[in-house]
Amino acid sequence: MAHSVRRIFVALVLLGVAVAVLASLGAWQLRRADERRAIAASIEAGRAQPPLVLTPETQDDALTAWRPAQATGQWLNQYSVLLDNRNQDGKPGYWLATPLLLDATSHQAVLVLRGWLPRSLSPPSSSSASPMSSAPQLPDTPAGVQSVTGELSARVPRLFELWSLGGTSQGQLPDMLPAADGGVPQVQNLELPAYARATGLSLLPAVLMQTRGADTLVRDWPQPSIDYNQNRGYALQWFSFAAIAAAAWLVLAWRALRRGRERQFDDSQNP
């Protein structure tokens, strides 16, 4: 009997834990749905604003994410940077980032994400059977004053860096730009403060994601997932599982209580 009681007790504890865990997962999915709904509202509100003309006098509070914007200035091609591991339709490639100089006197500029270009692959070498990655062919940068249209972003979208935990310098931005070897740096992520220090430019605290251009760059920029109905569906599933576990707990507890009362009745009838 004692063994049976212990088994029932353990089962009740496990079912109670399952109810708590499953219900917490459902609540977490509801919070994720609220977060995605807030992101969707932020994107819609940003795109609904009138286009902003970027100048050295543009106030920070006007640089709302997803807001349409336009900048006029000169490309500083010597400060271009390639952002590695940016895939497009399953193809590996880069984002090309180049600053646009808004004012030569104050060195005020805005960093522009100009678009995506594919990774170039050279034929395999004698020591390797697989093709090797080579520096991509960058599109020509128009000279003179140019007008660029796009949408604002608070920062360059980041990717997780596996080597960031190891403290190595792989994929890091050079201390100074242009690079000493004259090449275009390839980095995993790009932070505006570090980029401003390397270039000596005074950057607006936002990034312009270019949406139109005469070159061959692809400008299909990713946006955060905003399908909050999917999270609601997951929440319903977790709450359903929690309800099943709770029902099993009640059934088991009721049977254990009934058996206990039956044993007490039998003991009273047979002293």
UniProtKB/TrEMBL annotation:
Entry keyword Membrane: yes
Disordered: annotated segments: 123-147
Membrane-spanning parts: 234-254
rRNA-binding is among the record's keywords: no
Subcellular localization, as worded in the UniProt entry: Cell membrane; Membrane
Record-stated family: Belongs to the SURF1 family.
Protein name, UniProt field: SURF1-like protein
